[in-house]
Amino acid sequence: HDVFRNFIGLIALLCLAIIGISSLNIVRRVSYGIFYRIHVLAGPLAIFFLALHWNNVVLYLAGGLLYYLAFSFPVFMEERSDPPARIASADRICGSQSDCVAVTLAVSDLALKAFRAGFYVKLRAPSVSNLAHPFTVNLTDRDGEMRIIFRCTGRFTRTLGSQLAIATQQFQATDRPLSPVEFPQLHIRGFHGGCNRVGQLSQHDAVALVAGGVGITPFLSLVSELALNSNRQTRLVVLHWTCRD
To answer: Cβ of 168: how many Cβ atoms within 10 Å?
Structure first.
């Protein structure tokens, strides 16, 4: 311990430095996968090497370490045991030059009651990646359905969009509906996002909303719910939507 004390302290410091650098926008926004993997690997390593300074820091780290394990392990096991979502349909959005896909999900009444405009879910497609990605979810015009719309830009969305398109094309010529097992498996956890956006907007006489491209998705249910809210004082809603095409 006396020989390697400074060395393991240096390793712990380097791990923390790597975590800090990977948290910068230039890394996190461009490559989320690298950002995520660095945190998953370097975080526990930093804690481990700090814990080797047992006579100084182990008592300070014990509470946080136990809390981290108690929280992370059950969540990890629960995510792996979730049944796949029931996919009703997957369609390319007509007229879109940016290659957008709309995935319609069959959901329970409990999920419909828990939904609030602006909520998002974490979607994991094991056939593409074990990492979960956040996507806004919206209601549809039909009961018992929700929809996720995404643009195929990164590796995850491009591969998922391609797999959904192949599954749809294979059975396009048949009259029967697609079975959920014929789609790539999607595991969805949510809802996330605790803000009451409709309540916030309802407190103002006039509201201006600004969206860019596929970033319109959080506003789809928001505008509809705002219009149906009888307790609102909002009289004017202006939506600015900018698109490349």
So the answer is: 17
Q: Give the global pTM.
A: 0.68
Residue 191, preceding peptide bond in cis (omega within 30° of 0): yes
Q: Do 190 and 108 contact (CB within 8 A), yes or no?
A: no
SS3 assignment for the chain: CCCCHHHHHHHHHHHHHHHHHHCCHHHHCCCHHHHHHHHHHHHHHHHHHHHCCCCCCHHHHHHHHHHHHHHHHHHHHHHHHCCCCEEEEEEECCCCCCCEEEEEEECCHHHHHHCCCCCEEEEECCCCCCCCEEEEEEECCCCCEEEEEEECCCHHHHHHHHHHHHHHHHCCCCCCCCCHHHCCCCEEEEEECCCCHHHHHCCCCEEEEEEEHHHHHHHHHHHHHHHHCCCCCCCEEEEEEECCC
Instruction: Tell me the CA distances in angstroms from 152 to 129, 211, 214, one per residue in order.
Output: 15, 18, 10
pLDDT by position in tens, the chain (length 245): 677 778 888 998 999 999 999 999 888 878 888 899 999 999 999 888 887 877 777 777 778 878 988 988 887 787 777 788 888 888 888 665 568 899 999 999 999 999 988 899 999 998 898 888 999 999 988 889 999 999 888 889 999 998 888 887 766 555 555 555 578 889 998 898 877 888 888 888 898 999 998 889 989 888 888 888 766 788 888 999 998 77
Q: Which of 123, 127, 147 is nearest to 135 (CA)?
A: 123
For tokens 């100084």, the residue is: 56
Residue 121 CB: number of other CB atoms within 10 A? 23
